[in-house]
Amino acid sequence: MRLQSSVFSFLFAGLVTATGFDCAHINLDGIKYDLSPLGGVHSLYHIEETEDYVVNTTYVLNICNILKGAAIRGNLKCGTSKNICGFEYRDAVDGSDSETKAFPIAGLDHLGHGAKDPEITRLKQLDPDREGLRVRLGGGQYLDDKKTKKDAGAVIEFQCDPTRSGLEGISTEEDTAEEQLRAKEDGDESGDKSRSLRFQSFGPADNESYVLKLDWKTRYACDDYLSSKKGGSSNHWGFFTWFIVILFLCISAYLIFGSWLNYNRYGARGWDLLPHGDTIRDVPYILQDWFRRVVNTLQGTGSRGGYSAV
């Protein structure tokens, strides 16, 4: 049974990559982006207070892979094949009532049905002064207050910030409760303002589907990040490495072919096998003589008027 579960998990992961959002290979308008460093399971939260209820919602996401076990929190299950899930805890102010629910926001349905239908847009197409990517993902469902099922999705704006990796201040499963309490005391419902991943809103859109909106500041969303990284020393070292490899292969081919020719034509052995073996043996002496001449040239003839002592 464990083997079957592992196989199914592997197939789910491969299916998501094949049919959904490939965070490591994004190419728009000839510009390449790699958001894979932002992969992994991350969580953020939002607290909303009304006269009757306090609603605490934790959002768990993995933009590069399915959530697997992270889609299960206690008795709440969202769907292990999802990429983004929400876990809502609604408590009455007077303590008389408490409700909990989990809802998928983006990803494949169970057994691989459905699709995330990713839509990726450069922010410069929407605003020339902004740089980054807007990623829209679907495949979720939300049960509204009228118990009506609505489609759900997410819109994540990856905003270019060269000073941020994108992982600053992101909550882990262990510190979420502590951060929630601190945020509530500070009056900051979306958490520490220094965090790179921030909650914006969750609610019905124009088409009546529910949309989770997130902002994610990171250097990996900058248009020139990959090109500047490749345009540095890596390209020069790459050319130099290839030059050395090709030169080594040419010299090796010359020596091997010359040795084979000397063996078959002249029956040569040992050093005589090598082409121009005498010259190769004399190389150390040639270099020594050349080095001596260079030293003598640099030192000059001193005060002897150009004559050397006999």
UniProtKB/TrEMBL annotation:
MRH domain ranges (all copies): 21-224
Region ranges (Disordered): 165-200
Keywords, ordered alphabetically: Autophagy, Cytoplasmic vesicle, Disulfide bond, Golgi apparatus, Membrane, Mitochondrion, Protein transport, Signal, Transmembrane, Transmembrane helix, Transport
Composition bias type Basic and acidic residues, residue spans: 179-195
Protein's cellular compartments: Cytoplasmic vesicle membrane; Golgi apparatus membrane; Mitochondrion membrane; Preautophagosomal structure membrane
Membrane topology reported for the UniProt record: Single-pass type I membrane protein; Single-pass membrane protein
Transmembrane helix recorded as keyword: yes
SUPFAM superfamilies (UniProt xref): Mannose 6-phosphate receptor domain
Family: Belongs to the ATG27 family.
Protein name, UniProt field: Autophagy-related protein 27
Species assigned in the record: Aspergillus ruber (strain CBS 135680)
